[in-house]
């Protein structure tokens, strides 16, 4: 009887160790995903700031090109071209930032692992 109690206690200890190990891995996964989400958010905010700055620069170039429209043949078209180029860069930055915010589901891998764990526990309860 004593050997069965020792065997049971040993099994319980091993099960607890496995459960703690599994919980540690899941928490590490959540931490990694949190860091990835923060980096994605920072990249999106940097893109939005870049789009804002380039948009302001494009507006200034367009205004200056309109104000400097004088008979010198190259000044105004060059300012207009630079303004349009900066405006295009601002629009591309804006689209990139929107894609950064729309990509992926936050904590998707953690949620998938927890769902898999739940299914595995549900299967073992029925046995």
Task: Write structural notes for this entry.
By secondary structure, this protein is mainly α. It has 3 helices and no strands. Helix 1 (2-67) runs antiparallel to helix 3.
What gyration radius follows from the Cα positions, in whole Å?
29 Å
pLDDT below 50 for ≥5 consecutive residues: which ranges?
none
Helix content: over 70%
Mean pLDDT over the residues: 80
Largest sheet: none
In total, how many beta strands? 0
Figure out the total of helices: 3
N-C termini distance: 26 Å
Number of domains: 1
Q: How would you classify the helix and strand content by structural class?
A: mainly alpha
What's the topology here?
Layout: H1 2-67, H2 75-102, H3 108-125
Helix pairs in contact: 1-2, 1-3
List the main descriptive attributes of the protein structure presented here.
single chain, 127 residues, mainly alpha, 3 helices
In short:
With 127 residues, the chain is mainly α. The protein has one domain (2-125). It has helices spanning 2-67, 75-102, 108-125.
């Amino acid at each position: 009887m004593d050997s069965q109690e020792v065997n049971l206690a040993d099994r319980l200890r091993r099960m607890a160790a496995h459960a703690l190990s599994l919980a540690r891995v899941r928490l590490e996964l959540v931490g990694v995903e949190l860091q990835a989400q923060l980096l994605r958010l920072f990249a999106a905010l940097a893109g939005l700031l870049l789009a804002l700055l380039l948009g302001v620069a494009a507006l200034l170039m367009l205004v200056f090109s309109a104000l400097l429209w004088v008979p010198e043949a190259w000044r105004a078209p060059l300012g207009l071209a630079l303004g349009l180029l900066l405006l295009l860069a601002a629009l591309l930055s804006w689209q990139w930032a929107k894609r950064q915010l729309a990509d992926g589901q936050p904590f998707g891998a953690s949620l998938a692992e927890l769902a898999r764990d739940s299914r595995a526990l549900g299967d073992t309860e029925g046995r």
